[in-house]
C-alpha cells in the first residue's frame, strides 16, 4: 500500500510521518500494493485531526479522529479502519470474492453481529431543477442537513449539505 501524508496548519515532524507509515503498514496486509492511503493531519483549535481515506476500486474506507495528540489520533484512526474492515468482512467478500485488491483471509472476525443491512424507510421524490443557492435555501427552509436536487448549471444530480463548521458543501455526481 502506498501512503500519501499531508498536513495542514502546521508541519508534521518526520517522527510523526514515520509513525504513520509504521501504523498503516499494519493495514498493508489487507490490500494489494496498488492501493493508496491518503492521510491528512490538521491542527485545529489546539487539537489534532487525523483523517485517513483508503480508496479501493469500488469501496472507500474512511476514518476521522480529533485528539489532543497527533500520535493518539493516528492510533485511533488505524483502529477505526481495522474495525470497519472486520465489521463488513462478509459483505465485502460477497461483493469482491475474486478481487485481487483485498486479502480477506487476513481480516480478523468481528465480535459484532453481522446482520444484513436493513433499510427501514424509503422516500421517493421528484428532482426539481434549481441552482445551488436555491437548493441551500430550500434545505434551510426544510430544516434538513442535506438536500438532493437537479443542478440547472450542470444538468446533473447534486446534493448540498450543512458542514460541521456551519458552512455548506456540494456533492456533484458523475457516471
TrEMBL record:
Principal subcellular localisation of the protein: cytoplasm
InterPro entries in UniProt: HPF/YfiA_ribosome-assoc, HPF_long/plastid, RHF-like, RHF/RaiA, Ribosom_S30AE_C, Ribosom_S30AE_C_sf
Compartments, as annotated in UniProt: Cytoplasm
Keyword entries, A-Z: Cytoplasm, Translation regulation
Pfam families, alphabetized: Ribosom_S30AE_C, Ribosomal_S30AE
Sigma 54 modulation/S30EA ribosomal protein C-terminal domain segment(s): 116-170
Family per record: Belongs to the HPF/YfiA ribosome-associated protein family. Long HPF subfamily.
PANTHER family according to UniProt: 30S RIBOSOMAL PROTEIN
Biological role: Required for dimerization of active 70S ribosomes into 100S ribosomes in stationary phase; 100S ribosomes are translationally inactive and sometimes present during exponential growth.
Assembly notes: Interacts with 100S ribosomes.
Protein name: Ribosome hibernation promoting factor
Species of provenance: Anaerovorax odorimutans
Annotated gene: raiA
Amino acid at each position: 500500500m502506498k501512503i500519501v501524508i499531508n498536513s495542514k496548519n502546521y508541519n508534521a515532524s518526520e517522527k510523526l510521518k514515520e509513525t504513520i507509515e509504521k501504523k498503516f503498514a499494519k493495514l498493508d496486509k489487507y490490500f494489494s500494493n496498488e492501493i493508496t492511503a491518503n492521510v491528512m493531519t490538521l491542527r485545529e483549535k489546539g487539537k489534532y485531526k487525523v483523517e485517513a481515506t483508503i480508496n479501493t476500486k469500488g469501496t472507500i474506507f474512511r476514518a476521522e479522529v480529533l485528539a489532543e495528540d497527533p500520535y493518539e489520533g493516528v492510533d485511533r484512526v488505524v483502529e477505526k479502519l481495522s474495525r470497519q474492515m472486520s465489521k463488513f468482512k462478509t459483505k465485502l467478500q460477497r461483493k469482491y470474492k475474486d478481487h485481487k485488491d483485498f486479502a480477506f483471509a487476513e481480516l480478523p472476525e468481528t465480535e459484532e453481529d453481522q446482520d444484513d443491512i436493513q433499510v427501514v424507510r424509503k422516500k421517493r421524490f421528484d428532482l426539481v431543477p434549481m441552482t445551488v443557492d436555491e437548493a441551500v435555501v430550500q434545505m434551510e427552509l426544510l430544516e434538513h442537513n442535506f438536500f438532493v436536487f437537479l443542478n440547472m448549471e450542470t444538468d446533473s444530480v447534486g446534493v448540498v449539505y450543512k458542514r460541521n463548521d456551519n458552512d455548506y458543501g456540494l456533492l456533484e455526481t458523475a457516471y
